[in-house]
Amino acid sequence: MPTLRRLAALNDADIQAAATLLRDAVAGGASIGFLADLDHAAAVGYWRSLAPALERDVLCWIAEEDGALLGSVQLGPCHKANGRHRAELQKLMVHRSARGRGIASLLLAEAEHAALADDRWLLVLDTEDGSSAEHLYQRRGWQRAGALPDYARSPDGRLHPTVLYWKRLRHTADT
Ligand SMILES: CC(C)(COP(=O)(O)OP(=O)(O)OC[C@H]1O[C@@H](n2cnc3c(N)ncnc32)[C@H](O)[C@@H]1OP(=O)(O)O)[C@@H](O)C(=O)NCCC(=O)NCCS
Question: pTM for the whole thing?
Answer without folding.
Answer: 0.95
